[in-house]
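pasting for the record
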Amino acid sequence: MRRIGLVSCVKKKASAPCQARDLYISPYFRKMRRFVEASCDDWRILSALHHMIRPTQVIPPYEKTMKGMPRSERRSWARTVYGQIRDEFQEPDAIILEIHGGREYIRDLVPFLTSAGYRVESPVPPLPIGKRMQWYDRNAPGERQRPPRSSRSKETARSFNSVTNLAESGSRCAKVHELLETLPEFDSVDARVPSDGLYFFYEKGELNGHDGSSPRIVRVGNHPRRLGGLPNRLRTHYSGSKNSSVFRKFLGGALLRRSDPNHPCLEPSPGQGHWEKQDERPCQRCKPTEQSVSELLRETFRFRCVEIADREERNRFEEGLVATLAACQKCMPSPKWLGKNAYNEHVRDSGLWNANYVLGSTPLNPRELSRLEELVSTTNAPRS
């Protein structure tokens, strides 16, 4: 089988036209290039502007990045790249695609590839860029030829394969929705809400893509600091202020932008107006928005809770659940979803009222899904 490296482009570029392999001049890109030139039979570059290009193709510097693209444009980009791969490498059974680079480049591309029968691998764990660079330093092949598979480091062999999990994320997301459907649903905080745990909001009109009729989880939340703080955290969402609840800040900003993109509480720019900027003092015009957010939550949202007493475990499940839901290709927001008016691109792109853990975090693994099932069962057990 031929191993083809796919390396994402980077922002830092040379100042004049040159071969693509030399155009991208950041240390991160150079480490990725060195790795695939040694580990793969051939390699290509994934460019935000030019799609998939050969390393020897001469191109001028450009400014376009994947982070600046709306989700619809990213999907179109992925569809074009998939077509290029299919045209150039026409026998999926004879190809291994080894992907290196940002998640924005692979999130929508991998499902196309795996559905067509391509084998996709990502040897690098899902880490921040600085730690990825350290990983390349530790695992860089010593000579410019593909090392035998048996000689690859144990760390590589045991690393979490984020690409594989993108392909599997649909089934894992379906399992999460299925498990949580067994929990009681709330429209307000009462004595049945556990003292410690995670909460999951559902929004009227938003359905999951696994059965097409059950509600879609639109927010995962935690109370990471205060012991016994889950009920109060939920009350803050329903009746607090925008500075006491990021959820309320997102909702209010989206309501304002949907009705008037030039509303004075949103000025001077998205995320910088006093409504959307954390800890900025509200004005008199904000009072009706606070009321509208509270009414919206009472009328449109419901929530479920799973009891998780251990803070460290709870924090890990918050991260893993958000990452699992965000990676799912089937659970897409409806065309009229309010979150499309949010200033935060993670909210708009993921279909979740979450900004943290949407990108670059580790989804739940099979062992953690089994543990989640145990936690749901414990939550549902009668209390003495």
